[in-house]
Amino acid sequence: MSDQSPDGQYYDDTLNYKSISCEQIPEQFLDKVVAKEHFSQFGVIKGFILRPKRYECTVYYETEEAAENALMDGGVFNNYEFRVFYTPKETPKPKIIEENIDPDVQAELEAMGSVPIVRTFPQIREKIEKIERKPFPVDIADGKKIGPLPNTATKAEIKAILRKPALTTEDK
């Protein structure tokens, strides 16, 4: 959004007026010292980012006046012209919104019970409530329920097994 100041100039609140970005910079600027030396003639440099693969750089100045001077006069080096412009302000990256979670995935995770439940759409919540928890399987021979196996091994026995060297592929 652009606003007009009392002195008649337009300000765009999407731009950072204390920094400039440059594209199609000369090869000499791939040496950071040369580039910093060129841009330091316009004011005190607060930060400098060089992107050599893209032939781009960003220069952060302490004052808006320094950035404006660099914008006006900094686009030429040894008779080589390159593009200079105010750096756009960084917009925060959109966060993953909980509503964007796939309903089927969320229902499956909640059914497993090991994942915390996040807020979901009402339709998803209804789906989750309809999921039936299956009982443990029943042994056909004597009709008894087969539950989780009893924990008969002690920690010491398990640690001893784990510490044994695996010499065969079967052991591994």
From TrEMBL:
SUPFAM superfamilies in alphabetical order: RNA-binding domain, RBD (SSF54928)
A GO molecular-function descriptor: nucleic acid binding
Protein name: RRM domain-containing protein
Organism annotation: Lutzomyia longipalpis (Sand fly)
